[in-house]
Amino acid sequence: MRMVFRWFGPDNDPIPLDHIRQIPGVEGVVWALHDIPVGEAWSMDKILSVKSQIEARGLHSHVVESVNVHEDIKLGRPTRDHYIANYQRTLENLGRVGVKVVCYNFMPIFDWTRTDLAKKASDGSTALFFERNLIEQMDPQEMVSKILADSTLTMPGWEPERLTNLSRLFEDYTNVTEEDLWNNLTYFLQQIIPVAEKSGIKMAIHPDDPPWSIFGLPRIITNRDNIRRLLDIVDSPNHGVTLCSGSLGADLANDVAALIREFAPRIPFAHIRNVKVYDNGDFVETSHRTSDGSVDIYGVVKAYHENGFTGYARPDHGRHIWGEQCRPGYGLYDRALGIMYIWGIWDALEHSCKEG
Ligand SMILES: [Mn+2]
Question: What pTM does this model have?
Answer without folding.
Answer: 0.95
